[in-house]
Amino acid sequence: MRTKAVNEVTLAFPSRSRNEGFARSAAAGFAAQMDPTLNELEDIKTAVSEAVTNAIVHGYPEDIGPVILKIRVLEGNVLELTIKDHGRGIPDVDKARQPMFTTGGEERSGMGFTIMESFMDKVTVRSAVNKGTTVVLRKRLAPRVKK
């Protein structure tokens, strides 16, 4: 069952590494309406950074393609971030989610999904070879006491 969005935005940008910072900032800016703590904001930015970097590096290793970032504020003070690419896909999602597993060469740590999971309440990954990958991140933000 799909949860109703209180507010949402969808952004699309080319899979260039310099757009990772834009995605982080956009997610943080949109999440600001929920009055997150600084720690929550950093968690959001870090998780988005990992997901977008995966789309750029692994989704489109040899070309430039679209990355879509959809940010939704859901009822119950839940932030949902969906990062989607139409790239090469992940042949074995379970294996890709294992710590230290990477297909990105020596310069990659293989910790992207592990980091996302440590900062978010829920991480869902759907992928099909040569069709792309969708990562959905969810985090319930702590309610803030209004003074």
Q: Can you offer a commentary on this structure?
A:
It is built from 4 helices and 5 strands; from the N terminus they run E-H-H-E-E-H-H-E-E. With 147 residues, the protein is α+β, with helices and mostly antiparallel strands. It has one domain: Heat Shock Protein 90, CATH 3.30.565. The mean pLDDT is 88.
SSE layout and pairings?
Blueprint (H helix, E strand, L loop, with lengths): L4 E10 L4 H13 L6 H22 L6 E9 L3 E8 L7 H4 L15 H8 L2 E7 L3 E9 L7
Antiparallel strand pairs: 1-2, 2-3, 3-5, 4-5
Helix pairs in contact: 1-2, 2-4
Label this structure with key terms:
single chain; alpha+beta; five-stranded antiparallel sheet; 32% helix; Heat Shock Protein 90; 5 strands; 4 helices; globular
Broad CATH class: Alpha Beta
Shape by Cα distribution: globular
Main pleated sheet: 5 strands, antiparallel
- Rg on CA atoms, Å: 15 Å
Determine the fraction of residues in helical runs and give it as a percent range: 25-40%
Structural class call reads alpha+beta
The strand line-up of the biggest sheet is 1-2-3-5-4
Task: Indicate the CATH architecture.
Answer: 2-Layer Sandwich
N-to-C series of helices and strands: EHHEEHHEE
Number of domains: 1
What is the distance, rounded to the nearest whole angstrom, between the alpha carbons of the first and last residues?
Answer: 35 Å
**CATH homologous superfamily (4th level) name:** Histidine kinase-like ATPase, C-terminal domain
- Strand fraction band? 25-35%
